[in-house]
C-alpha cells in the first residue's frame, strides 16, 4: 500500500503570496526495500518536450543477448550515456558511454536535487509498443556497489512497473510509471527485490525510461 499524499501540498507561510508548491511523493511500503515515487517531477509540457527530444536524438541501439545458445534481440532499444570511462556490462553486453547531452544533464541535475548522490551514467530504454518489455531482474551489477541508488525517470506511455521479493514468495507490489514521473530505488531494494516492466496486449504508444546510476569502476581499472 502507498502512503497517500495530495498531489501538491502547500507549505504554510506567514504571507499567502510566498506559498511554495511542494512536490508530491509517495513511499512504497516494500519490506527490505526503500522506494519513493514522485509522480509529477516534470510537468506535461516539459515532459512532452523531453520525450520528443530523447526519442529523436538519442543514439538508440538494438542489442541482442545469448539465450540458450541462441542470439535474441532485446525486446526494447537501449542507449548508454555518461562520464568517460564509465562502461557498463548489462546482460553480458559491454556498453561504452556516449557523452552527456544537454537534455540528459538537465534531467540529471533535476533528480540529483532529490537523490543525495551525483549520478555518472544513465541507461536509456525505449519501449516502442506493448511487445517491448524488461523481464524480472535486479540492478545489482558489481560496478554499482552495495545498496545502489537508482534514479528512474519515465516519459511517454504509462506502463506497469512491478516488484517481487526474491525470498518472500508472494510478496509483490506494482505501480504505474507515468509521463514525467521519477522513482528512486535505494537501500537494500536491489538486494531483496526484482522488478520488471511486463508486455501488454493493449495498443500503447512508445515509452522512454532513463535509469541514472553511479558506476564505481573505471574502464581503465578493468581492461
Ligand atoms: O523501464 C523501466 O521502468 C525500468 C528499466 C529497468 O529496470 C532497467 O533498465 O534496469
Ligand atoms: Mn532495472
Mean pLDDT: 89
Helical content stands at 10-25%
Instruction: Tell me the number of helical segments per DSSP (H or I, 4 or more residues long).
Output: 3
Shape: globular
Radius of gyration over C-alpha positions, nearest whole angstrom: 18 Å
- Strand line-up of the largest beta sheet: 3-4-15-12-17-10-7
Number of strands: 17
Low-confidence stretches: 1-16
List all distinct small molecules, including ions and cofactors, that are bound in this structure: 2-oxoglutaric acid, manganese (II) ion
Number of structurally distinct domains: 1
Strand content: 35-45%
Order of helices and strands: EEEEHEEEEEHEEEEEEHEE
CATH topology: Jelly Rolls
Characterize the largest beta sheet: strand count, sense, and whether it forms a barrel. Answer: 7 strands, antiparallel
Question: Under the CATH scheme, which architecture would be assigned?
Answer: Sandwich
CATH superfamily: Alpha-ketoglutarate-dependent dioxygenase AlkB-like
Structural class determined from secondary elements: mainly beta
What is the distance, rounded to the nearest whole angstrom, between the alpha carbons of the first and last residues?
Answer: 45 Å
Characterization of this structure:
The structure is a single chain. This protein has a single domain (7-58, 85-217), classed as Alpha-ketoglutarate-dependent dioxygenase AlkB-like (Jelly Rolls). Helix content is 13%, strand content 37%. The chain is built from three helices and 17 strands. It has helices spanning 44-57, 102-112, 189-192; strands at residues 8-10, 21-23, 26-28, 34-38, 64-67, 70-73, 77-82, 88-90, 93-95, 121-127, 134-137, 150-156, 159-165, 172-177, 181-186, 193-197, 207-213. It has a seven-stranded antiparallel beta sheet. A four-stranded antiparallel beta sheet has the order 11-16-13-14. A hairpin with a 6-residue loop joins strand 13 (159-165) and strand 14. The protein binds 2-oxoglutaric acid and manganese (II) ion. Residues 123, 125, 134, 139, 152, 154, 161, 177, 195, 197, 209, 211 line the site of 2-oxoglutaric acid (AKG). 2-oxoglutaric acid (AKG) binds next to strand 10, strand 12, strand 16 and strand 17.
